[in-house]
Design a protein that fits this description.
This protein is mainly β. It has a single domain (59-215), classed as Jelly Rolls, CATH 2.60.120. It is 11% helix and 40% strand. The protein has one helix at residues 3-25; strands at 59-65, 72-75, 84-91, 98-105, 113-120, 124-132, 135-142, 152-158, 167-174, 179-186, 195-199, 209-215.
Length: 217
């Protein structure tokens, strides 16, 4: 083997060692955590991904259970990513007979709740109560002198809660003195971010439960 050939082989070995050394110190690129940063892919191009528009079911936003007796509870920081809301409440109160519960949007205590109602027990009643300072659920909470297994069930639906228009609502409550259906509007252009439920007197008994759901368009 000639000296020229040997010299060329040595040069190639040296160059190879240099490339190997460079690869050993090469750092891996940072990982991608946002699906939308992957080349050729969007944030929502896989049908099996949960999507509040594509999957038209109720999505649980909040689930609250009172650990002790309380006069009120608030669900706040409501996300603005749904079209409509539904609040389900199961409760009783710590006094006798039947207690009144009411709801306020964003803590608004002004006369901004235009309400109509239908109520029935042994007889039917219907009326309009005009502008109220809350959404009323009257005589709906069973008291301590009633069956301990008896709870009132309240369903409050609020439509288009993110839009700059009056928010339509529908409230149905039952399980106490009468079945009541209320409907009307919260006359505010503000987006709804919180719902507060308050008892007129006394307290809600520990174990009262409230679950808020969001619905897509």
């Amino acid at each position: 083997m000639s000296d020229a050939v040997i010299e060329k082989l040595v040069e190639e070995v040296v160059a190879l060692r240099a490339r190997v050394a460079a690869l050993e110190v090469l750092e891996a690129p940072a990982g991608v955590t946002d699906h939308g940063e992957l080349g050729g892919l969007g944030d929502d191009d896989h049908l099996h991904y949960l999507n509040t528009v594509r999957h038209g079911k109720a999505h649980k936003i909040a689930d609250l259970t009172l650990a002790s007796d309380a006069a009120s509870f608030t669900i706040s920081n409501i996300p603005q990513t749904f079209a409509h809301l539904e609040l389900l409440v199961r409760a009783r109160w710590n006094t006798t007979n039947y207690g009144d519960l009411y709801f306020r949007c964003n803590g608004d205590s002004g006369a901004n709740y235009c309400t109509n109602y239908w109520t029935g027990n042994n007889s039917l009643g219907f009326g309009a109560v005009g502008n109220r300072s809350q959404i009323d659920a009257p005589s709906t909470l069973p008291g301590t002198n009633l069956d301990a297994l008896r709870y009132s069930v309240i369903r409050l639906t609020i439509l288009d809660y993110t839009l700059a228009i009056a928010k339509g609502f529908l409230l149905h409550c039952g399980g106490a003195a009468a079945q009541t259906l209320l409907w009307g509007q919260w006359q505010s252009s503000d987006s709804l971010t919180s719902i507060t439920a308050t008892i007129v007197s006394g307290k809600l008994v520990a174990g009262a439960k409230a679950t808020l759901y969001g619905y897509p368009t």
